[in-house]
Write a structure and sequence with these properties.
The protein is built from four helices and seven strands, in the order E-H-H-E-E-E-E-E-E-H-H. By secondary structure, the protein is an alpha+beta fold. It has a single domain, classed as START domain (Alpha-D-Glucose-1,6-Bisphosphate, Chain A, domain 4, 2-Layer Sandwich). The longest helix is centred in the last third of the chain and has 29 residues.
Length: 149
């Protein structure tokens, strides 16, 4: 087992139509407005940027983000990640009913940050919990943001 390899999956039920959620998720530079753990996003051009995140555990992760698949009809947004974490992340947004949708988040990454690599075995449960808390906060933040729009 590679202790520095992670796969994450989250399902968010959201109070907005799928196209509205998709357009909101497309605007990665706005994530810090509604997702507290996304501390900073710097756009480099139309298809790439740099993201800095920090959740409960006191460490920052910084990664370059580059657009992969963007398919509004299928509700798919995918990016490649390189830096403190290397891999990919994908949103798939689908309609649930009138004014509701499901945002399915998937991520597969390898940790590259040296300190986190050294702590891989004892820290793994803490890192997974840290990610879960970040995702829960993101869901709450996005739901509140969508209700306010």
């Amino acid at each position: 087992m590679d202790w520095n390899h992670y796969r994450f999956r989250s399902l968010w039920t959201l109070p907005a139509p799928a196209p509205v959620v998709y357009r909101t998720l497309e605007r990665i530079e706005d994530y810090p407005l509604w997702w507290p753990q996304v501390r900073e996003v710097t756009r480099l051009d139309d298809t790439s940027g740099v993201v800095r995140i920090r959740s409960v555990v006191p460490y920052d992760l910084t990664s370059a983000v580059r657009e992969g698949r963007r398919d509004p009809e299928a509700g798919i947004l995918e990016v490649g990640l390189s830096g403190d974490i290397d891999g990919w992340a994908r949103w798939t947004v689908t309609r649930l009913g009138p004014g509701r949708c499901l945002a399915h988040y998937e991520q597969e990454v390898d940790v590259r940050k040296p300190l986190l690599r050294r702590l891989a075995v004892p820290g793994r449960p803490v890192f997974r919990l840290n990610h879960a808390l970040m995702m829960r906060s993101g869901q709450r933040g996005l739901a509140a943001h969508l209700r306010a729009v």
